Amino acid sequence: MIQRTFIALACLTLTSILLTSAEASVIMIDDFQDGDVNLTANSTIPSSSASVTATSAIGGTRETGITYKSGPLSVRANTALEMLSFSSDTMTTGDFNLTYDANGNGLNADLTNGGSNDTLFVDLINADAGSILKVTLESIDEATSTSNSYSLSESLTGPGLAEFGLNGFIGVDPTDIESIAVNIEGAANGDYAIDQIYVAVPEPSSMIIWSLSGLGLIPFYRRRTR
After folding, report:
1. By the 8 A CB rule, do 47 and 65 touch?
2. Cβ-defined contacts of 14-21 (< 8 Å, 24+)
3. Pairing state between β 93-100 and 61-70
4. Torsion angle in degrees (nearest 10) through CA of 141, 173, 27, 25
5. What is the pLDDT of residues 42-89, one digit of tens each?
6. pLDDT, tens digit, for every residue of 158-177?
7. pTM for the structure as a whole
8. Residue 81, φ and ψ in degrees, nearest 5
9. Which SS3 state, helix, strand or coil, does residue 49 take?
10. Overall CATH class of domain 27-205
11. Number of neighbours of residue 204 by Cβ within 10 angstroms
């Protein structure tokens, strides 16, 4: 019993240390605390965009754009309640795009934070199926002054935390990023909301909790299907 208690305390202490370390290395791309926008696009006005100063955004600015694609009504984007929302009306489709490039001056950002970070996260608190989330990173090769960019996409099935490993952006230097773009190819009558975009290491707590559960140190509960 004493040995089991000691192991539990040691694992919980390790969890705390790892979580503290992970939080310390987080690079926030945007948490939408400021820089409000309210955009609408339709067949009459097929695109709308706004570049705003935003202290909550990496590089200090955020460019938001929406594009109407098809349908009888409109697509919209707005910031409210510290999140950014994008929606399309019935039988109407459109695209939504966020760009971070320090107002065209380039971010020159090390997303790895010296090597500790390896994953870009998009926290979707609302997302409809039948749509695609795409993230594009761009870096500049200083030796040749050429731009290198690469995009990764993920099909959305609902809300959740989308993860994009930095090593998956082929040819891009994550230690010297010029621009970041996040795009949603929306479904008809779709609703989407982004709470945060950030770069960090995957949270280590889940692995440790599984280990503790396997040792019988904490109970593991599985949600029963009805």
Report:
1. yes
2. 14/208, 15/204, 15/205, 15/208, 15/209, 18/204, 18/205, 18/208, 19/203, 19/204, 19/205, 21/116
3. antiparallel
4. -130
5. 999 999 999 999 999 999 999 999 999 999 999 999 998 899 999 999
6. 999 999 999 999 999 999 99
7. 0.81
8. 55, 35
9. strand
10. mainly beta
11. 15
